[in-house]
Write a structure and sequence with these properties.
By secondary structure, this protein is mostly beta strands. The protein has one domain. It is built from no helices and seven strands. A five-stranded antiparallel sheet has the order 6-5-4-1-7, with no helix packed on it. The protein starts with a strand and ends with a strand.
Length: 54
C-alpha cells in the first residue's frame, strides 16, 4: 500500500483540521487519513501531498 503525508495543515471535507505530516492513503482521487477514531477525507493534490516509504 502506498502512503502519503500532507505538506501543509488542511481542513478536510468533514471540517476537521489535519496537522502537517499526517499519514494518508490514496483511493483514486480521494485521500483518506489513517485514523481509527474518525473518517477524514480530502481531494488528492500533488502540491499538498507527497508519497512516503514506511
Amino acid at each position: 500500500m502506498v502512503h502519503y503525508r500532507n505538506k501543509i495543515n488542511i481542513i478536510s471535507y468533514e471540517g476537521i483540521e489535519v496537522e502537517v505530516e499526517s499519514l494518508w492513503v490514496r483511493k483514486g482521487e480521494l485521500m483518506v487519513l489513517i485514523d481509527d477514531d474518525q473518517y477524514v477525507t480530502f481531494p488528492f493534490s500533488e502540491s499538498k501531498f507527497y508519497q512516503v516509504e514506511l
